[in-house]
Amino acid sequence: MLLPADYHMHTPLCRHAKGEPTEYAARAVELGFTEIGFSDHSPMQRDDFDDWRMVASQLDEYVEKVRHAQTDYPQLSIKLALEVDYLPGHEAWIRELAARHSWDYFIGSVHYVSETWDFDNPAKLSEWRSRDPYEVWSAYFERMTMAAETGLFQIMGHADLAKKFCFIPKEDCTALFSRFLDACAKTKTAIELNTAGLRKDCKEIYPSRAILQLAHQKQVAITFGSDAHAPGEVGLDFDKAVQLAQEVGYTHYLRFDQRTRQETGF
Hints:
Elements: H1 21-31, E1 35-41, H2 59-72, E2 77-85, H3 91-98, E3 105-109, H4 133-150, E4 155-156, H5 174-187, E5 190-194, H6 209-217, E6 222-225, H7 238-248, E7 252-257, E8 260-265
Parallel strand pairs: 1-2, 2-3, 3-4, 4-5, 5-6
Antiparallel strand pairs: 7-8
């Protein structure tokens, strides 16, 4: 199988990953990848916002680390990107980040359903037990929809991250998914098949088959990402992700260069 590009990888600068970009690149070459992309957690406006991302003063260091990997592994196409948290009202900050370097793509993600609750943080798992899952999922997909509507992102990351700890609403969430995917279709924003879900409590690729089927119906394009936080996670379970995409009906995925999209067949 010709491996699709792995566009979701982190670095130690986010404070919860290990291994330098050169080590991820070496693993990618070993596995037979021809293209990867680093998309570490971007800084927030306040460095004390949380403790699982680089601080603003490290952004240039991050770029240099990726450039170093590009130099060391010229046989591998290595893209420079960021995973950028979307919070309402932070659009100007995202535009400022976008202007600082020649990024190949931005992955938009939602980890916060309020200013203080990063719902996928294991340290805050107990908060789920006092919440209605449908209300959390509704808030999550509302923000995902808002993020897609901005057009600031080329890809939306792990599109049903809210399932991570298996707090699944009993209610039908199809309307939530549909509004989000309509926004993606309108702005030509892709979604990723993120295999990290298979390594979490939910034991399922992000997004679910149901969401992916709906995305295909709405002609929303896809990318792939391992969400690697260590070199050994590069490309993990890509065979399962490609199989899922093909079963749903996808024949192509997107690659990016300087934010310009290119369709590539499996």
